[in-house]
Amino acid sequence: MKTWRMAFLAASHERDCFSFIDLGFIFLVDATFLRDYDVVPVPIPEGTVIPLMRCNLLTFELTFDWNDVPYSIPSKAGETSRTLRGDLLALLERQPDGTADVVLIAGPDRHHVHRALLSARCDYYRHLFQSDFADARATEFIVPDDPAAVRIFVRFLYSDDADIPADNAIAVTEMANRLLVPKLFELGVAAVVASLSASNIAGIRVWANRRGYSALSTKLDTWVEA
Q: Distance between CA atoms of 16 and 30, rounded to whole angstroms?
């Protein structure tokens, strides 16, 4: 047996549910415990959102034996735990679904993205949106970079990762540098280094020096063909 002293978020309607968190576990408790204190905790999957309206804060002492808990939340066949990355990528793949409020235009592509996420992930757009320029309130932006690089950039915004083909490495690196996205820049540099060969290193060294990419230039100076 174990006793928890809990802070419950209590909804205003008798049939609503309560939630509390202890030691990393999230429980769902039926509101009928207010009448008879007969409480059965039910574990729910991590990340589950429990909507509560017009909540009050209660304090309640709960004693039970975890081994006696008879309930569990069944999972669907083949269902895996949801992640923030997975949910954001699913959100991106649903576009346009009416939730995006900015369109990035690159060549023939129109990328519907979310202003808040774009601002949080990209310093260039964050500074733009917070400025007094007329563009700060625009809903469509023409992106002058290579369309393939822009597609990689948009997916990076939602996934925090990028699979950069060798043919797009330079374009992605330049775009990430221009838009002030440090992690994507690092991924671009890594892709450039991975694409090095005896036939292209001289040209890439000239390009890196002209752009002032000192970190990349250092890597080029120490590169040895495998």
A: 7
CB atoms within 10 A of CB 118: 23
Q: For the purposes of burial, counting CB atoms within 10 Å of the CB of 44, is it exposed (0-12), middle (13-18) or buried (19 or more)? A: middle
Residue type, 66: W
Where along the chain do its domains lie? Answer: 2-68, 84-195
E strand or H helix at 9, and its extent? strand 2-10
Could you tell me the sign of the dihedral formed by the alpha carbons of 179, 184, 187, 188, in that order? Answer: negative
Sheet holding 25-30, edge to edge: 42-43, 25-30, 17-22, 2-10, 56-64
Q: pTM of the full predicted structure?
A: 0.65
16 with 52: CB under 8 angstroms?
A: yes
- Each residue's pLDDT tens digit, 68-96: 544 444 555 555 688 999 999 999 999 99
> 96: cis peptide before it, omega within 30°?
yes
Q: What are phi and psi of 139, to 5 degrees?
A: -110, -10
The structure tokens listed for 182 are 């440090």
Euclidean distance between CA atoms 101 and 103, whole angstroms: 7
The CATH H-level superfamily of 84-195 is Potassium Channel Kv1.1; Chain A (3.30.710.10)
Reduced DSSP (H G I as helix, E B as strand, rest coil) percent helix, strand, coil of the chain, to 5 = 40, 20, 40
